[in-house]
Amino acid sequence: MATLYLHIGTPKTGTSAIQEFLYSNREILEKQGFCYPEFGYRYTGVHIRRNAHFLVHHQICKPENEAKIRKEENERFYEGLDKIKELTGTFPNVVLSDENVWNGYVRRENFWKVLSDALSERGIDLKVIVYLRSQDLVLESYYSQRVKVKIQMSFQEYLDSEDIDVFKLDYYRQLKEIEQAIGKENIIVRVYEKQQYEGNGNTLISDFLNVLGLELDEKYISPDKVVNTSLYGKALELKRILNGIDGFVTRRKHWLVNYLKIAQEEDERKNGTPAKKFFTYEKRMDFLAKYKEGNEAIAREFLNREDGVLFRDEIIKDYDVVGDYSTEELVLMCGRLLQIQNEAMEKKIEGMSNKLAATQKELDKVKRQLAYERRPLYKKAVSKMRKVLSKKK
Questions:
Q1: Alpha carbon separation from 155 to 146, 152, 161, 164, 248 (Å, rounded)
Q2: Domains of the chain from N-terminus onward
Q3: What span, in angstroms and rounded, lies between the C-alpha atoms of 302 and 188?
Q4: Per-residue pLDDT tens over the stretch 98-131
């Protein structure tokens, strides 16, 4: 039977980097029997490399449109599965990826059983790949992402809000629910920690390829661009404050975020890497205690680790916590932002001026050419006119 490898996240575990790699290396993967398809489906705010999104897409709509929209989403769900079935006629393995599956599958009743049964009817085995990251680090990373996009609340306010409910941080409970529908043998659990990565190079990408039974080597293309880079330190704090102005809130690439990244890199080169942690040590340990038992169960049941250790990175007791930055520090960074924006504008104006000058040069050339081409005609017309006038005399 053919196999569908469904990578479901979790969020904040390098999913964008994995998707970018798979998308950039589609031809190379196909030669090895693995297809990372692009179905042509388009969703607002969802990159095309997230090719599994059709499984869990849930459009927010008006009540009067609810039935129609849900019907369309359900039709696309099975349409996508039929396309996968067609692909398995050529490729024994199909790979899909979307981090929203981890949180979003609850919108479809009995999602895992429905998906598993539908694939089985099409002669396809289902293997689910999930990466787990220490819950405290997930929240710190996601908080930074949320600030980069739009929120203005502090980290403590964020912890106290309902915003964090979007995450399913009780990993064990989630995995057991999936297990009931598809079986433990069909769930591949990996840990998002560098020291636990397998494969050539011990990177996230080599680890993912290792799951597929492939080895990372020189034949693969390494995408040059960094996907979904983060803000931190003073740049993040400045963005948080400016989120109080509507024009500085965005879900897409924005001039402010781009310029903040430049200022952040300059500040890092000058002053070193700033603190990126938001939990105090005590609050971090209290927070992790809620998931200790479940994490140990995952290590034993899904990774066959008798010691029950899921995450192996050491939690350092003494570290700097992101604190309040002085007004002077933030004003200086804001001033640098203005400089960066001004430099970018001057560069753009210079480029436009050069383009206009080049265009004018082309126009002058055309005028000269036309004048040159018209000269013989002018002389001939003058000569003819003279002859006519001569005859009249």
A1: 11, 9, 10, 11, 19
A2: 2-232+274-301 (3.40.50.300)
A3: 8
A4: 999 999 998 889 999 999 999 999 999 999 999 9
